[in-house]
């Protein structure tokens, strides 16, 4: 890991005074969005990648990550040779592989939908909200082994104007709902709704995004 990346990771560690006398060290959640396949493998150049809390690659980026993390070559698929169903199944396998070390793995699969892997259930929140209504922490694992779930994408009508920015908007919608303490399934829906707003316009990020009326 480069010194610049290490500095960025260190900035995610903050010291906070406890109401008592003890000084506690708390770490903010580290979310890695690779943006392209050329950057996907960079955190895996050392074991520091295991400090990442959330990964949100697309299918091709997920393949690169798994190769870099040491997944057996025979298990890494070639997307061009797979059906939609096979893409989903392989994404589940790869998410589970990374989920041994990463708290949350979210693989966006385009028109197919999203695969999420975490040690929690679909009706549990991603973040716990503090009693002050402001502080946020990733929900502690509630089950021993990671579970993987597939959420099919809603139909996009009319035909998408542009796919540019849809993945970023999906992440934004998901994070928006997650930070408000919503359940995983609600956060996923919020992500899809934000992505649909992006698909309906030519610009990468639409002026207005209607995330989800069910988001708290």
From TrEMBL:
Annotated GO biological process: phosphate-containing compound metabolic process
GO cellular component entries: cytoplasm
InterPro entries (alphabetical): PfkB_dom, Ribokinase-like
Keyword entries, A-Z: Metal-binding
A GO molecular-function descriptor: hydrolase activity, acting on glycosyl bonds
A matching Pfam family: PfkB
Domain Carbohydrate kinase PfkB: start-end pairs: 49-202
Protein name: Uncharacterized protein LOC117640715 isoform X2
Lineage of the organism: Eukaryota, Metazoa, Ecdysozoa, Arthropoda, Hexapoda
């Amino acid at each position: 890991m480069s010194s610049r990346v290490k500095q960025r990771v260190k900035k995610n560690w903050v010291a906070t005074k406890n109401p008592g006398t003890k000084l506690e060290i708390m770490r903010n959640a580290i979310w890695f969005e690779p943006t392209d396949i050329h950057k996907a493998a960079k955190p895996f150049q050392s074991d520091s990648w295991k400090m990442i809390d959330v990964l949100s690659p697309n299918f091709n980026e997920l393949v690169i990550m798994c190769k870099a993390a040491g997944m057996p070559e025979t298990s890494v698929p070639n997307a061009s040779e797979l059906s939609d169903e096979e893409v989903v199944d392989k994404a589940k396998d790869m998410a589970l592989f990374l989920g041994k070390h990463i708290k949350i793995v979210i693989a966006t699969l385009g028109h197919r939908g999203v695969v999420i892997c975490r040690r929690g259930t679909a009706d549990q929140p991603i973040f716990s909200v503090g009693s002050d209504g402001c502080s946020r922490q990733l929900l502690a694992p509630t089950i021993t082994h990671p579970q993987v779930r597939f959420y099919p994408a809603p139909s996009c009508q009319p035909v998408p104007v542009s796919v540019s920015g849809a993945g970023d908007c999906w992440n934004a919608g998901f994070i928006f709902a997650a930070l408000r303490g919503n359940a995983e399934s609600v956060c996923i829906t919020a992500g899809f709704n934000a992505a649909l707003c992006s698909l309906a316009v030519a610009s990468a990020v639409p002026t207005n995004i209607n995330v989800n009326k069910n988001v708290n």
